[in-house]
Write a structure and sequence with these properties.
14% strand; four-stranded mixed β-sheet; 12 helices; alpha+beta; four-stranded antiparallel β-sheet
Length: 380
């Protein structure tokens, strides 16, 4: 599989313009890194997956993985814009020709941001099939009522891919039916309100409320009631891309820690000469390398059109664990300095911890593997 060295070099070069000081300032102010997102847009990286006919680059998912990995390896945070890559899959794979022509060119030009993914709700969490937000047909529109939570970048996005219930849960033949996907234009949207949620890292996440919000029926993606299966491909892409970010985080931690271990002198010798420092770093490197191979396999399967649910889940779990282990090793290596904001370790430590919980928790991934790969009885 192509590792996209030219893309990696170009993205790394762009990221030099956004050093640790930039990210620390944004983190301290809990502010959206608009300058960084605009730079990614100008260089065409956020339109990498959009087909050329709509103004994008038409690149495969592995190229998007390379982009996000390099952002994180540089010490940045791709979460500011990564949804524009994984949300794209639902529209690209299941949207109509009219929908693509209407929205994708403007997204590619940077005139519209498609970065919000409205799925999770306070009462259902990971139990997506139990979501309560409703979409009721009203002539040429649907009326949306309900609430979403952990909808990151809703305040900075123009468009949202929204999952809502169009048929009551007790009236469907299968649990996976009765949900529909919509492309919501949030720019002029009466009844829509967004409430920021303060978190331990700068992630721009929100709660979103819908009070008789109108969505044109023409903005429904695919068939009514089949939305759950439409978003699954987007969820698999999301997990693979998040895994690539975690690999970038692991690289960042290991680069900073090994550089420090070579230079830091204690008792007349570099601390990197001590096996107590060497072994955790070496083990973290080995695990990150192994996780990257799993990410590449998941990406290859996704790009070839294979069912990649198990591989996407395993890639995300293993990469998140590898980045956390690398972060732990970096914290121990730098000691007290790891807690100082100027070294960026503590910021990245907080950021990478998220990915063992979201977008799907490690426990749910293990339950998925147990049932769908090992054939064990369903546990939930």
């Amino acid at each position: 599989m192509n590792d996209w060295p030219d893309i990696r070099a170009a993205v790394a070069k762009l990221c030099t313009g956004f050093p640790g000081e930039y990210w620390r300032a944004k983190d301290k102010a809990d502010a959206y890194p608009i300058e960084f997102v605009e730079a990614l847009t100008r260089e065409g990286w956020l339109s990498a997956l959009i087909p050329e006919e709509f103004g994008g680059s038409g690149l495969p998912l592995s190229a998007a993985c390379a982009i996000l990995e390099e952002i994180h390896a540089s010490g940045g945070n791709g979460a500011a814009a990564h949804a524009q890559m994984y949300v794209m899959g639902t529209l690209l794979r299941h949207g109509s020709a009219t929908q693509k022509a209407q929205y994708l060119p403007a997204v590619a030009r940077g005139e519209l941001r498609l970065q919000a993914f409205g799925v999770t709700e306070p009462t259902s969490g990971s139990d997506t099939l139990s979501l309560r937000t409703t979409a009721v047909r009203d002539g040429d529109n649907y009326l949306i009522n309900g609430q979403k939570i952990w909808t990151s970048r809703a305040a900075q996005s123009d468009l949202m891919v929204l999952l809502a219930r169009t048929t009551p849960k007790d009236q469907v033949a299968k649990r996976t039916e009765g949900l529909s996907v919509f492309l919501l234009d949030m720019r002029d949207c009466p009844g829509l309100s967004i409430q920021p949620i303060e978190t331990m890292m700068n992630h721009g996440t929100t709660a979103v409320f819908f009070d008789n919000v109108k969505i044109p029926a023409a903005n429904r993606i695919g068939e009514e009631g089949q939305g759950f299966r439409y978003i699954l491909s987007g969820m698999n892409a999301e997990r693979i891309l998040i895994a690539a970010e975690c690999i970038g985080d692991a690289r960042f931690f290991l680069d900073r820690a090994t550089s420090y271990a070579k230079e830091r002198q204690v008792f007349g010798r570099p601390i990197g000469q001590n096996q107590g420092i060497q072994f955790p770093l070496a083990q973290a490197h080995a695990r990150a390398h192994a996780a990257k191979l799993v990410v590449a396999d998941a990406c290859r399967r996704y790009e070839s059109g294979e069912v990649a649910g198990a591989e996407a889940n395993m890639a995300k779990m293993l990469a998140a664990e590898a980045s956390w282990q690398a972060g732990e090793a970096a914290m121990q290596t730098l000691g007290g300095f790891a807690f100082a904001a100027e070294y960026d370790i503590e910021r990245k430590f907080r950021e990478t911890r998220l990915y063992q919980v979201a977008p799907v928790s490690t426990n749910l991934i293990l339950a998925y593997i147990a049932e769908h790969v090992l054939g064990l009885p369903k546990s939930y």
